[in-house]
Amino acid sequence: MTHRPTRRILLAGGVGLGLAGVLAACTRPSPAPSGSPRPTSSGSAQPTRTPSSTPTPGGPDSWDALAAAVSGTVLRSGSNGWDSARVLENPRYDDADPQGILRVAGAPDVQAGLAFARNTRTPVALRAGGHSYTGWSAGGAPGTDVPRSLVISTQDLDGIELHDDDTVTIGPGAQLGDVYAALAKAGRAIGAGSCPTVGIGGLTLGGGVGVLVRSFGLTCDQLTGVTLVTPDGAVHEVSTSSEPDLFWACRGGGGGTVGVVTALTYRTQAAPPVLLFSITFAWSAAAAVVRAWQDWAPTADPKLWSTLKLLNGSRHTAPTVTVTGVWTGSKTGADTSVDGFIAATGAKPLAHTGRVLTYGAAMSALAGKPQRVSEAATSSIGSAKLTDVQINVLVAQAAAAGDVDGNLEGGVALDALGGVVADVGRTDSAFPWRSALMTVQYTAVFADGADPAPFDAYVRGFRRAMRPAWGDAAYANYCDAAITDPSAYFGDNTSRLHRIAEQADPTGVLDQPNWV
Question: What is the DSSP track for 448-485?
C-alpha cells in the first residue's frame, strides 16, 4: 500500500444537529426529484443486515452505464427534479452544481457508484440528510473547496426495522422525526438530536449530541453494528467483534472517513416520560446565568440535560438568555435540581415553564416548526469552566451579534455533556471529548442570497475570542472549512483514524479538497 502522509479526514455532508440546531439550521426537506422514490419510514429500501461481500471487478465507466447499473436514480443537470435534488438544507448552497447525483437504493448501487468514480477518476461527495455546515455534501458549490463531484446520496435508505432483541436497524437517510415516531409507537427510544429533518447517518457518524445525551450517551455510543461499503466496493458488517477498527471509526470519526454507510443498528431503551422545561432571564443576568449553569448542567444528575443560549439580532428587541432542558426522572427530582440552579444565579426568571410529555411527543415538541434558513456556524469544545473574565467575553461576543448588519439572529449555544458520555474512555471511540463539559456552537442567521462573508467572520471571530478558554477543539458535526487541522475534531484519536482511513481507502477515492 502506498503511504500518503498528507492523508486528511473527510467530514461528509448530512451532519446532524443537537437542540442548538433548532436555532437556525434545522430545515424542512427539499422535495424529492420527480420520478425517484420518495423516502418512507416503512422503507422501500429496508436497512436489512447485508452479508459481507467482496468488491466486484469492472463496473460502469460512463454516466449512461452507471444509470443502467443501478436500481436507484442517477440525476444530471437538466434531469427532471434536478434543481430540488442538488440543493442542501442550507440555502446559502442553493447554487450547488455537482456533476451528477446518485440516489442509491441499496449497497449494490453504492458499489456501482464507487466503481464509476474509480474508473472515471470522478471525485465523490457523500450525502445523508443534507445538513452539511460547510456545503461539502453539495458536490461542488461556490464558496466551497469541493470539486464538481458525483454525489452519492443515501437519503432514500430510510427504513426503520425493529428487532426482537430491542435493537433497531435504520437506514442512514432516515430523518430523526420519522425515527422518533417509529420508535415511540413501539415504546422504545434512542438518544439523538432534535432537528426532525436531520439524517441519522451523518448525525451518528460524527458523534451525535442530543437532548438525551447525558442519560443515553452519544448516538454513536448506542450503535451495535454498521453496514458500510469501502471504496474498493467491498461490503462490511462491522461491530466490536467484526472488523472493530472500522466500527471504531464509525463511532464519531466523521461521515465518509472509511466508506459509505448503508445501515446502522442501535440498541434501544424503554421510552421514558420526558419533562421539558424552559427558563428565560433578563440580559443583565447573563454573566450570572452562565456562571451558575456551567457549575450545574455538566455535573447534574444524568437524567437532566440542558442548553444555554445567548442570542441577539434583528429578530430580537433585546438580547435573550434562555435555558432549555429535559428531565427523564420524577418531577420532584427535576424541581429540586432546577430550583437549585435558579437560586445559584441570584436572578429572578422572566419566565419559567415545564410540562411532562411522552417520549414521542417531547421529541416532536423540541423540533418546533422547522424552516429553511441561511446560516453560518462553527464550534468549540467546552473543556473547562470559564473564569469571570472569560464569561464577560462570551456575553459581549453574543451581544455583538446585533452589531452585524443583516444578522437576523446569532450568538452562542452551550450544550451540556457529562453524565454517561464520560463513562466511555477517550480512545474507546473516535469521539475524544469524553471529559468535556459541553459542546459550543456559534451561529449567525441571515437572509437568503446575502453575502455569507460577514456572518462567517462573526462566528469565527467568536470562536477565536474563546480560544484562550477552550483552545482549538471543535465538534465534527459542526464542522468549519476554516479548521484545517483534523486533530481539532479528533484530538489524540487522529493518528488512529488516519491509519484506518488509509487502510480502507489506499487509492484515495474519497480523498478530495473536502477532507480537513
Answer: TTS-SHHHHHHHHHHHHHTHHHHTT---GGG--TT---
| 430-205-13-490 Cα dihedral, nearest 10 degrees | -10
Strands (E), 82-175: 100-103, 124-127, 150-153, 160-162, 167-170
- What per-residue confidence (pLDDT) applies to 331? 85
Contact 236, 267 (CB under 8 A): no
Q: Tens digit of pLDDT for each residue in 439-480? A: 999 999 999 999 999 999 999 999 999 999 999 999 999 999
CA neighbor of 395 nearest in space, from 499, 310, 510:
310
What digits encode the pLDDT tens for the residues 313-356? 999 999 999 999 999 988 889 999 999 999 999 999 999 999 99
Residue 472 φ then ψ, to 5°: -100, 0
**pLDDT score at 27:** 32
> Which residue from 164, 150, 201 is spatially nearest to 179, judged by alpha carbons?
201
Contact in structure between 483 and 404 (CB atoms under 8 Å) = no
| Average pLDDT, integer, range 227-241 | 97
Place of cell 462570551: 394
Cα–Cα distances (Å) from 68 to 14, 112, 415, in that order, read 27, 10, 47
Residue 127: which of 271, 260, 297 has the closest Cα? 260
Going by the DSSP 8-state scheme, the letter that residue 114 receives in this structure is: H
